[in-house]
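Review this:
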Amino acid sequence: MKIAQKLLLAAIITSTIFVAELIGGLLFGSLSLVADSFHVILDVAALLFSFLAIRLALRESNERYTFGYHRLEIFAALVNGILLSFAIFYIIYEAYHRFIDKVDMYPINIIIIAVIGLGANLVSMKLLGHRHDDINVRSAYLHVLGDTFASLAVIIGTLFILISGVYWVDPLVALIIVGILIRGTYRILKESISTLMQKSPIDTLEVKKWLNEKPKIHDVHDLHVWRLCSNIIVLTCHIVVESCELSEVCELREKLQADLSQKFGIQHSTIQFELECNTCSCDLCHKEHHHREDFTCPID
C-alpha cells in the first residue's frame, strides 16, 4: 500500500473514533471522553496534513501559483489550531462546573467506546509503522501514539469511577488531556504563524558564514530563508564572486545548491551572482538609503 493511501486510511479510522467518542461522551456524560475526542482531532489533522503534503507535492505549479499549492497545508493547520483553542476553553469551562455539580454518567458504555477507540488507534499504529522512512508518516505515527495513551487514561479513570463512585475523576482526566491539547495546539499555531510570517527555520547567520568561507565568494547579502510548507525550505541570496568564466559560475551554483540541500535541508535555492565591480540594483539591499515608508504596505 502506498504512503498516501496508508495516511488516508488511518485518517478515516481516526475520524470514526472522533465521532464515536464525541457522541458517546455527550450522551453518557463523560467529559474526559469528549476531551479525548478533540485530542483525536489533532491526530486526524496530522494525518490529513501529511496526506495533503504528499498529494500537493505532485501538483504542478502554474503562472498564478508559482510555488504550487503547498501553503494550503499551513492555512489548514492554522484553522485547525484556532478551532481547537475554542474546544479547549469549552472543556475547561465544563470541567469547572463538573467539579461543583455531579453529572450522571454511564461508566460501562464509556469504557466500551474508549476500548473501541483504543483498538482503532492500535490498528492505525500498525498501519503506519514506527520505523517508516517518510517524516510525514513518522510524525503521524507519534500523534496516534499520543492518543493511544489518552484513551488508556480515559479507560483507567472511568474504571476508577465505576469501582469507587468518585465522579470528579472524570473532569480531572479531561483536564489532563486538555494539557496535552494545549501543548499540541500551541505548537500548531506557533509553526503555522511562523511559516506564514516567513520566519527562517534555520540560523541565517550560520548559512551566511558557511557561504563566505567558500572559495571564490567575496560577500553574501540579501539572504532570505523561509519555509514554504512543513517539508520545503526555500533560500534566495546575492553572492559576490571574483571575476570568472560563466561556466565556473554555473559549476559553483550547482555545487552550492547541492551542499545547501545536504547540510541545511534547503530544497529550493535561488542564487544571484554579482561581480565586485558591480553594484547591486535590488532596492531591499539598500533600504537604508530610502525612506521607511517605501518598504511598507499601503493602507488604501
Observations:
- The longest helix spans residues 135-164.
- The chain has two domains: 3-196, 204-295.
- The longest strand covers residues 217-229.
- The radius of gyration is 25 Å.
